Amino acid sequence: MLQGTPRRILLGLAGAALAAPAIAQSRYPDRPIRLIVPWPPGGSADAQLRSAAEIAGRSLGQQVVVENRAGASGTLGALYLTTQARPDGYTISQMHLSVVRRPYIVRNPPWDPVNDFTHIIGMTGWLFGIAVKSDGPIKSWADYIAYAKANPGRLTYTTSGIATTNHLTMEELATKEGLELVHVPYRASNEAAVAVASGEVMSVADSSAWAPLVDGGQLRLICVWTGERSPRFPEAPTLKELGHDMVVTSPYGLSGPKGMDPGVVRVLHDALKAALFDPANAKVRAQFDMPLEYYDTEGYRSFIARRAEYEKRMAQRLNLRID
Question: What pLDDT does 24 receive?
């Protein structure tokens, strides 16, 4: 004991020291949080994450500001997290399968998808499908196959980028069916859908940004990639019904830079989980037919680790390289 220092004062000082982390944690967040969406505005992920950001911001007491950074197949958010962002909880980004896949398809891996990020929460996935121009020659999956086989190298399809989940799924389908297709990537799913409606490309294989154009009669949906038929588009068969044992929903979540404080992660997770299950966010997900794919922090990290192993095996099997 310090000379001349009463015991009650020492105990008070010790208690203050123990409380300091809690006090510091309680101050998070004390300024706006940046959420990077690595796509242009207007797509399904952008809409879902903007909704979640708005709802979470109310409970956090600080605005969650969405910043769109499109390009590089949706990996610019991950690049920012690993090269510029501080692990203080004020910059997070969408984590999706193209980010997990990228280290295995480039010569110089830019990150370790498991250990170079702080994975916070798994949220939702996409309704993928293939749509064609409604007044074009293709009316069904059978027509699609027949046209491709009769016209090798002439049937074009578009996606939101090279080496995205939808691109790789199309490559796998083409291999299984013995087709020679031409990939025409666009920057975003909504741009890809519009390109098909305008006749620039023959088909779009992507998430449900095509849905409004299907509802409006400009596009025809010929298949979906979920395990069951979509309630919104019950006439479109699943890949399983068409003879391919494949379910593709590409779950995504949110992550931050490596080394974030667990207390900060917990605050973010809890606010984002509440936002995900909020009726307003559920309404946005229903608008785009996005399936719920919730994982807590530990569960999401485990999912990313499992998926990284899968992506590594697939890249090796298909000899994928984009550089």
Answer: 42
